[in-house]
Amino acid sequence: MNQLKIHKSFNGNRLKQARTIRNITLQELADHLEKSHQAISKYENGKAVPSSEDIMKISKILNFEPSFFYLDNVNNTFYEKPFIFRSKSGIAKKYTDQTKELILLMQHLVENIEYKVSLPKFDLSLVHQSEEEFSPTSDNDIEELATRIRRKFNLGDGPISNLTALCEKMGIIITYINLNHQGIDGCSVLLENRPYIILNKDRESAVRIRFNIAHELGHILLHSRYINKVINKKIHSKRMEYEANRFASALLMPEKGIVGDLTALGLDYLITLKRHWKVSLQAIIYRAEQLEIFTPEYALYLRQQISRKKWRTREPLDEDIPFEQPKLLLYAIKYLEKEKNFFLTQLSFVTGLKVEEIEDFCTGIEGVQNKMDSRPNLMVIDGPR
């Protein structure tokens, strides 16, 4: 385990971060502690230090280890990175701030795991170069990028059996978190040369989540090196969403593979394609229209059929196609816990996270799987202690 970066005393910035993560206001925390709003504000601003007893109470209320509040500050440059959200419009800032802080917790966790085990490295050459002005990417270039990913990882032109495993092989960290706002599907960001994709545990079906992952991968490759002022301009967001959707469609349903399958018409046939390609009916229609296999009129007709059948939010086979589970961090921790005594306890101390939360970060929607049927390539950096 790396040397713990300790703040000289109680760190009020960490208290504010913890409050943001737990979505607790200053007044709510003050009420729990039977303190004034002003007292908590002074703790956060470094103008006062809580007693040891109050630190223990704060730790319990906010569900962190006491060591969390003595960690050094988060690298300020991280807050300048473009966090790209997949969400409905009108999401309150407190929810986007909460998600950002959760990702920074995840980054700190991964950093500490990497001191003991070598995780797959992300190939930065795949990412478009940094831009200060937005420059749209053409459909052809997006299709070529998706093809490049498929060729690099020998995926051929058929369905991707496990997109989560592919992303982890690429060096991308994927985790599912219970986000407080149902409007947020996910978020992606590139930190310290490693991409992170955070997905809302409470969202949708396996096929829609696969599309969300592919969509976030598109943002990482196409948009993660833009500066914040570019990302945050509403005038660009619609185009970036289009580009990420186009990439997701091209990656999951390459033209050379899907065209040969779109030989029959009707929703019943599309349902068989859904099982094969592991994408939603609506995604298949979207892709077929993109490739001009379906006319706009026929695509509209199919969408109307879906609406009449009340399939817009819940389609056939949604209950049958299993969720993909991230395994990279879970396996790394299980391995290190076996090789190094009390590794998880040490990890909890240096990150300030409860052991249960670490385990939750490292598992998917359906929790821990005891059988590791697809082990990522890991290399221990030093021997057991």
UniProtKB/TrEMBL annotation:
GO terms for molecular function: DNA binding. PROSITE patterns: HTH_CROC1. It holds the Pfam family HTH_3. InterPro entries: Cro/C1-type_HTH (IPR001387), IrrE_HExxH (IPR010359), Lambda_DNA-bd_dom_sf (IPR010982), Rad_response_metalloprotease (IPR052345). Residues 15-69 form the HTH cro/C1-type domain. It comes from the Bacteria. CDD domains: HTH_XRE (cd00093). Belongs to the short-chain fatty acyl-CoA assimilation regulator (ScfR) family. This is HTH cro/C1-type domain-containing protein.
